[in-house]
Amino acid sequence: MKALLLLVVAAPAVLAAEKARIDVSKMPLPVARKVDFTREVYPIFKESCFSCHGPEKQKGKYRMDTREGAFKVTDDYGPAIKAGKSEESAIIHMVCDMIEEMRMPPPSDKPGQSEKLTRDQIGILRAWIDQGAVWPDGPIQEVVKPVTFAGEIQPMFAQACASCHTGAGAKGAFAVDTAESVLKGGTTYGKVVTPGNLAKSSLLTILAGKDEDLPLPEKHKLPPKQLALVEKWISQGAK
Ligand code: HEC
Ligand code: HEC
């Protein structure tokens, strides 16, 4: 009876804790190397968090594109980032889906949006926090990783397009085998890529599934992330 009473009295205080299932052994391990904030951590925040916690929106009154904002002590979940202790940092609990209804980014029914962080990305965040959560002064100089045909585009096209667009028998004489053949274009559309110019690259319309004259439009539609890579590749000069 006494125990029961105690539980009831203590209930409000432990509510937040009860909703959490923090089991450190179930967290992806920190990566075993020195992690660089600008090159590795900031891009994860930017891609997965800033749409809701950046300059435009601050959901949950949390803003993580500035150091002051990112290190907020949350009302209910403790410090968002506790330098030296990733296992006690709320952002890690949230990206590991260990606090009920607080998975970050939150699940979404729109495909390609709000994807869970990978184990490797969580490992990078944990290592950064464990290594002292160093956030350099001043604006972050973003590192733009070049997208190349050999690196990202060719493997993607080999999977999505090569069954119809390879070698001499390529449909519409449009072959995805080399950067040169892609830049050359096909018989009906001619050039579909103008390096450095997104507006003049009709390939983007085709791959967004917005070209109604093309046969098999569903075979030509890429998911948003892959389309974004093709866009980057073209805007960076299609090398
Ligand atoms: C699609 C929008 C969205 C994205 C993307 C998103 N969040 Fe959130 N986040 C929210 C909302 C909404 C809340 C408030 C939820 C609540 O209080 O119930 C929140 C709350 C939080 C809080 C608690 C803040 C506080 O003071 O209570 C933290 C920490 C957080 N998010 C971290 C992250 C991290 C880290 C990422 C990226 C890995 C992320 N979020 C991505 C929508 C988002
Ligand atoms: C299932 C077969 C198929 C797949 C897969 C496919 N396509 Fe096509 N594609 C076609 C056909 C058929 C045409 C029309 C050819 C014609 O006009 O004779 C075409 C036409 C094109 C054209 C216009 C060529 C011209 O005539 O100027 C481009 C560009 C193109 N496809 C790009 C792609 C890309 C990039 C992918 C991969 C994301 C892809 N296609 C996937 C069948 C396919």
Describe the protein.
The protein has 239 residues and is mainly α. It has helices at residues 2-18, 37-48, 50-53, 67-70, 90-95, 119-130, 149-160, 179-184, 203-207, 224-235, and strands at residues 73-74, 78-79. It folds into 2 domains: 14-130, Orthogonal Bundle (Cytochrome Bc1 Complex, Chain D, domain 2); 149-235, no CATH class. It contains 10 helices and 2 strands; from the N terminus they run ααααββαααααα. The protein binds heme C (HEC) (2 copies). One heme C binds at residues 48-49, 51-53, 59-62, 72, 74-76, 80, 90-91, 94-95, 104-106, 114, 117. One heme C (HEC) binds next to helix 7 and helix 9.
Write the layout of secondary structure elements.
Blueprint: H1 2-18, H2 37-48, H3 50-53, H4 67-70, E1 73-74, E2 78-79, H5 90-95, H6 119-130, H7 149-160, H8 179-184, H9 203-207, H10 224-235
Antiparallel strand pairs: 1-2
Helix pairs in contact: 2-6, 7-10
The structure holds heme C (HEC) (2 copies).
One heme C is lined by residues 157, 160-161, 163-165, 171-172, 174, 176, 185-189, 192, 203, 206-207, 214-216, 219-220, 222.
Structural domain tally: 2
Q: What is the top-level CATH class of the largest domain?
A: Mainly Alpha
Number of helices: 10
> Helix-strand pattern, N to C?
HHHHEEHHHHHH
Largest sheet: 2 strands, antiparallel
Unreliable spans are 5-13
Name the hetero compounds present.
Answer: heme C
Strand-residue proportion: under 5%
Q: Strands across the major sheet, in which order?
A: 1-2
CATH topology of the largest domain: Cytochrome Bc1 Complex, Chain D, domain 2
The shape is elongated
Helix content percent band: 25-40%
Average of per-residue pLDDT values: 91
Q: Write the CATH architecture name of the largest domain.
A: Orthogonal Bundle
- Estimated radius of gyration: 23 Å
- Care to count the β-strands? 2
**What structural class do the secondary elements suggest?**
mainly alpha
Report how far the terminal alpha carbons are from each other: 74 Å
